[in-house]
Amino acid sequence: MRVQRRIMGLIVVVALLITGGFLWNAQRSHITASSTSPSSAPVNPIIAENQKSGTQNWKSPNFDQYIQNMMDAERLEHAADLKSADSGGGQAAPAAAWVDTQNIKGYASKTSVNVGGQLTLHISSTSSQYELTIYRMGWYNGNGGTEVVPTTTLQGFNRANPTPDANGMIAANWPVSYTVNVGSNWVSGIYMVWLRNLDSTYVAYIPFIVRNDSQTADILYLVATSTWQAYNGWGGKSLYEYNSPDGRALKVSYDRPYDQNDGSGHYYSGDYNMIQWLEHNGYNVTYATSEDLHSNPALMNGRKLLLSDFHDEYYSMEMFDNVKAMRDAGKSLAYFTSNNIYWQIRYENNSAGSPLRVIVCYKKETDDPSTSRDPWLNDPDPQKKMRTTVLFRDAPVNKPENQILGVMFESLVGFGDYRDWVVTNASHWIYQGTGLTNGSTIPKLMGYEWDRVWNNGYSPANMTVFGQTPITSSEGTFLHQAVIWQAPSGAWVLNVSVNYWQYFLEGNWIWPLDTRIQRITQNVLNRMIADAGSGGSISTNTPAPSATPSRTPTTGPSATPSRTSTTGPSNTPSNTPSATLTNTATNTPPPGSTTFYRAVNMGGPALVIDGNNWEANTGTTPNFTTTGSILCNPWQPLTPTTDTNRATMISCSQQHWAHNVVMSGVPNGTYQVYVYTWLDWSDGNPPAYSFSLQGQTVLANYQSGPAGKWDRLGPWVANVTAGTITLQTSGGLANLSGFEVYSTTSGGGASATPTMTRTNTSTAGPTATATFTNTVGPTATATRTNTAGPTNTPSQTLTPSNTSVGPTNTPSRTSTATRTSTATRTPTRTATPVITFFRAYNMNGPQYTISSRVWLAGNATNGVTVTNGTSFANQTITLNPTASGNKAQMIRSSYNANGTNDMSISIANVPNGNYDVYVTVWENDASTTFWMALEGGQVLVPSITTGSAGWWSRQGPYAVTITDGNLLITAGGGLANISGVELFTRQ
């Protein structure tokens, strides 16, 4: 018996590459329908919601200007104080700097509301009437929004603009104009109230967030409303000098419109791209605001990771503590931004007593934090003193943000300015599938603010710096550093330390779409989702074995030749003719044959595969629609290897959690459908998913993998009665590379009975020599020459049988003919074997259900006999790759070869026939090497070398033929542990 040794568990890597829609009227990606990526929750409302076609009616005429607006604001900020992100001073804006150009504007009574709740809108209009519509923001086929509350016309009132109070705070305090009753069926997300005066083209927005506090989701998207409000200069006051005439405010109110981007806050200049991309890719995401993070410590219950994007600068102490507690409880943090958790703020009630409606942030007036005007700075209550509104890293707070994120803000350039991102530690899993190497650059990604690692005793020791860019600006020389690390709780923490990340997910007129950024984002999110609750175990990534039988893909469709050729048929003409027979068929499929109809390369260009033309999936491909996102990884070797064009097709696939492939305009009839699928990432628990065709399940719980493994699944029969073929997937993240369709004919189709013209010239003689050439395929041409006599030249039309080498001809005279027949098959087509699960055995344990299949106990009752093997189990060891539940129990309980005599396993009651066999082996101690044979050496595995303790592998498939009703497996030469045996029939 061997001793258990502890190993590290496998961290699952799910690495994907997605393309999405472009923003701001840039050219759109060729993917036209919603896509997905991961969600482990049983119900994902985001996928269903984004099946709606959506609309662009929410757009303001100024929409394309929003990025430029950000640049202009940043230039003003820098003109006031080049270090504006790092101090509370600077030059105030001129007294006339703020001018109210909004002829209609408003604000909501809450930043967020739970489903089934209510909030009020407070609106000022210079017109007697205005229109109000409410939209939810998302992907919606690239349209960005869908109408939730239809347009209604309301009476307008021009409300007075308030003046600042002693703290510079401006609170509008307008009366209620409209009450929003949020339906219990509204999907969590960002909602925009669209406003327009009837006599104007100007559009204004009021944003609010709908939460679903009971929703189980993978991602909680944090909308940084506290930072939105800090920069909001409506009424002439913000927490910054550059847009605050006569000096900045010390307190700012939510009870006023936003002045940015027609009242939308920072949504369209920051969150829009990330949210479109997340929903485009089907992530199960729910939404909350800064105020929710402040007030609800249980916000992450039922969620796996917190995602922050663009600019998340202003935090209360409660927000700080809650985020830290979430991380320490195993919830991952993904900060696709920089300058985070920087200024401490406090919340206060408004004048009506409503909570969380006022932000307090005195800041510091100089580099000396003791000069802050905050009255809590010297308060004797330590809890108040700790909440002094200075930088978290400064006294008296002394809680530097790198204790949460690993990095802290260093400096900035102007918004719109940028540097090239420099790759470091390119071997880290975060870069898997990108093709990037150390020293590679990503243009324009670095900016406009950045963070770095600080040696202040708070940065974790196990951080990986995956981006490191030196920066020289007018302020000096600096270093940008992006980090990822894993906390002791198992939570992953990411900080990309830039503000432009989201733009590269979709692209706009400044920042290009970059598939490498998409891939990195997928790598991070899917790893965080997959590892949720992993307990902090870290190990090297190891490709996992396939959990379903490996299929040997064929290079073409299953086809029946149009002629069956025989090399020496009997031919006895009555008059030894010398004949020339011409047999030309336009298309001669025999009964039950298939003809190529159409094929689409799901993720790439038009190609020729097996002599057939495959179309590109451009998004406008006629009569073809999909739901999916592009995933390309040409660097991953394919198993099995294949020709260049097929490899190109396989390596660029579409990925989705719920594919919906529709081929329309299909003539009614019967078709055979094939689907190419593959796995491009190393995954200890490869995704399992099911296929349905025409609404009926055709393959349940298919499991892909290991990395690079591809299958051509099918043929599946589609009966078309309404002109469409529809294929769908469900249950897991599926990569579909190709969609291939063949029409099936039952009686030969058009030209099934070809017309043959025979010219027969004969001369006398008792013996005839015939030469017959038959080309097998959709078109068969036969030429036959007979030499005989006497002279007889008939012209004759015959109808041959489709299964013969040529027509049967019996002239009036009897002679003997010798015939040579040569058959050429073009193209060569091999029928795809049908692989069907037959039986599985848990060698040293009870009956289990694994991946929806029943595994029988490996005992004598079920016909299993083990010779020279010892029963062995170790259920406490950590498996590598990871496995759980019944599967893990099966692996860790085995029969152990004793190393002296060969161990044999005999399985009785196996019907004679052809099988694919898989054998699960594992290691509970140190690495060893052994051999294995099936059916007395019919399949010989000369050398299997195990990994260290906990390693396991599903070996196979091994093709065997059973002739005596028993399957024999033999292992020896080392201490082999065999846990399970699976049999699949192969026909």
Broad structural category: mainly beta
Question: How many strands appear in the DSSP assignment?
Answer: 55
Instruction: Assess the beta-strand content as a share of residues.
Output: 35-45%
Task: Write down the overall mean pLDDT.
Answer: 79
The stretches of 5 or more residues where confidence is low (pLDDT under 50) are 1-42, 82-86, 534-591, 747-830
Q: Tell me the Rg in angstroms.
A: 35 Å
Q: Report the principal-axis shape.
A: globular
Percent in helix: 10-25%
Distance between the termini: 41 Å
Number of helices: 12
For the largest beta-sheet, the strand count, sense and barrel status come to:
8 strands, mixed
Quick synopsis:
The chain is mainly beta and 987 residues long.
What's the topology here?
Elements lengths: L44 H5 L16 H15 L23 E5 L3 E3 L3 E8 L3 E9 L7 E11 L22 E4 L7 E9 L6 E8 L7 E5 L1 H7 L19 E3 L13 H14 L4 E5 H6 L9 E7 L2 E3 H12 L3 E7 L4 E6 L9 E3 L21 H4 L16 H4 L2 E5 L6 E4 L18 E6 L2 E4 L11 E10 L2 E11 L5 E4 L7 H4 L8 H16 L46 E8 L9 E8 L5 E3 L2 E5 L7 E2 L3 E4 L11 H8 E5 L3 E4 L5 E10 L9 E6 L2 E8 L6 E11 L4 E6 L3 E11 L11 E7 L4 E10 L4 E5 L9 E4 L17 E10 L9 E8 L5 E3 L2 E5 L6 E4 L1 E5 L11 H7 L1 E5 L5 E5 L5 E10 L6 E6 L4 E7 L6 E11 L4 E6 L4 E10 L1
Parallel strand pairs: 2-8, 9-11, 9-12, 12-14, 13-15, 14-23, 25-27, 39-42, 43-45
Antiparallel strand pairs: 1-3, 3-6, 4-5, 4-7, 7-8, 10-16, 15-16, 17-20, 18-19, 21-22, 22-23, 24-38, 24-40, 25-37, 26-27, 28-31, 29-30, 30-37, 31-36, 32-35, 32-37, 33-34, 33-36, 38-41, 39-40, 43-55, 44-45, 46-49, 47-48, 48-55, 49-54, 50-53, 50-55, 51-52, 51-54
